[in-house]
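Batch manifest, entry 17 of 40.
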Amino acid sequence: MPLATASLRKTPASGLTGMNPLGAMLVVAHEPRLGPQPNSLDNAVSCATHWVQLSDNRRPDAMWLEAGAMMQRIVPRAEWVRYMRKIRLDRGLLVGREWFEVTRVRDPVGLPAGDYLNVIFVAHFARAVLFETVSLAPGNSGWMPVGYVIRPVQREIKFA
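Output type: structure tokens
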């Protein structure tokens, strides 16, 4: 007898007396399955990565267009383009980037109440090593970028 058939005929556990073992399997087989999770952490990192890559490709207009309406109301498009061009000149070409951390932020100052995520990268540029933080808000179809901040990575100081 195949092993799978044998397992269907096992006596139910003592707490399940009177229950048909096949019926128990059917209940488990029909449990709801998780479908696509547009606001998952994987999608947050993917969205943030895509957004900073637009910066790498010198497409600040595309970054602004893909940002959430919240950011677009706060930062005019021309100001965003100027800001991104200036920081691109200051840091030089991208040498490498790695995902570093995702943090949850609840009710940030200056933004509507709610839960947000910050996806933080360590980016190695020709003239600097920086933390890049992409702030994300949940949207109807997934995460929406609503902010971008860069800051220097502080090197540890070794005391003799």
